[in-house]
Design goal:
mainly beta, four-stranded mixed sheet, about 10% helix, 2 helices, five-stranded mixed sheet
Amino acid sequence: MKNILSIGTILISCFAFSQVIIGDKIGTATDKTSVLLEFASGQKKGIILPYVRTIPSGAGLVEGTLILDATDPTKAKVKLYKGNPNWTDLSGGGEADISSAMSLQPDVSNVSEDLNSKAIIGDATTNADGVLVLESDSKAMVLPMVNKTDDIINPAPGMIVYINKSGAKRLAVFNGEGWTYWKP
């Protein structure tokens, strides 16, 4: 039994401190020393932000948190937390009716949520509240890259990608009805 626990602990440690590439074994970053999480190139897909029915708050909320604000599903917006109490709208002022998408999301209003349940990449523990937490002082996440948002078939509300096209490099977020573009 001790051997099984030891092997399990070693495997968990390896995964907790490793870089993760989703979609293939290569990813897109040329310098892997600065990356915790990245995605395969040429997938024409994005990462979906969590749909939240209640805006997060409290001590575990950290700057850089991204959400799809679905407190009112008829007025959804992608938001970035920039410090108490500032949530910045990344939807460019546009609102989206994501009621039909919300009907596909599980209703957890009557379920007791395990507030300690999360996936952490980069460290064994974190004080940050989140479903997926990247914890590092020197490494980052490389967003899924596309040439243009038109290549994404049926984007989901809360999708975020990086457009990596010469002369048009920018962040793109989809609020459920339209894309908003942010240039660096």
